[in-house]
Amino acid sequence: MHNQFFTVDYQSATTRARLGTIATEHGLVRTPVFMPVGTQATVKTMSPRELEELGAEIILSNTYHLYLRPGHDLVAEAGGLHGFMGWNRPILTDSGGFQVFSLATLRKISEEGVEFRSHLDGSKHFISPEKSIQIQMDLGADIIMAFDECAPYPADRSYVKRSKDLTTRWAKRCKEAHNRSGQALFGIVQGGVYHDLRRESAEELIELDFPGYGIGGLSVGEPKELMYEVLEELIPVMPGHKPRYLMGVGSPDCLIEGVIRGVDMFDCVWPTRLARHGMAITRQGNLPVRDQPYSRDFRPLEEGCTCYTCQNFTRAYIRHLLKAKEVLGIRLTTIHNLAFLIRLMQDIRQAIREERLLEFRDEFMAEYGRGR
Question: Which is catalytic among the residues 9, 73, 94, 347?
Fold first, then answer.
């Protein structure tokens, strides 16, 4: 399927940025793209219709969480994730690797896979590469990810090398276990902040010929400059005709810098998490709308924003809802934050098309960095 799976529609002459199209059975995705995260088969507080109205073309769901609750067999019975959650556009599922390493307790990594205790009830589970692929085939997402080990930051070189080698061996097993047609399996490049290990990881995975590649193990606590350096070294090694997905990255500055360096896909819980903490993303930086100074502020979250929230409600009203713990407050900040990032990606695509991405970055960052 991956001959026509990804098309590069335009390659910038001044940066590594490009415009592309990913073709799935549930529709097209224009890249570069930001994917809202729907961890438990829902983007928190949002209905699928609202996501469509915002222009979301693809969302992400989580293998680890859905395996633990309600169970992948139940989701399969419901007709897969699309049918279960009533979303008929593309879905990507991550492999559960990152969650096993970050959420689960008492995990034991072996060549076979990972034994861990659920963060929900402490029950014991085992996920192998084959099991992760089986779960994701049952979930029926359009794009699924290989099971990998995500090394923490900082970690010493010998640990990161062992982890990278294990990820490569697991990737081979994932590839062998995967047999669902119409579903693209991506490999995940690891290697921490060690440039030579990143290169090795990429070369080993390229040999396996996946239809796309995730870049994992970044945005795990390292300084942003280090992440950008890794991308600069790594992207030229990666195949130009396949999508590159920087996992777990979603702040506006990182989205712009990632695209400049040649990244096509991003996801992050950041915009929805910020919203739950009463923070709105704006061109001038993050607005803590839940704070006292906004109690009599009758302006929208952001002047000129066309989202439903900004067209209809004031900071004062949203602050009141948040302080009163009314669910609508979180819904309204979530709508705005996702609208902001989806529109940012549209602006980025426009800037690539017009060969002014670097100028766009400078203008955006001058305002974003200034704060309110």
Answer: 94
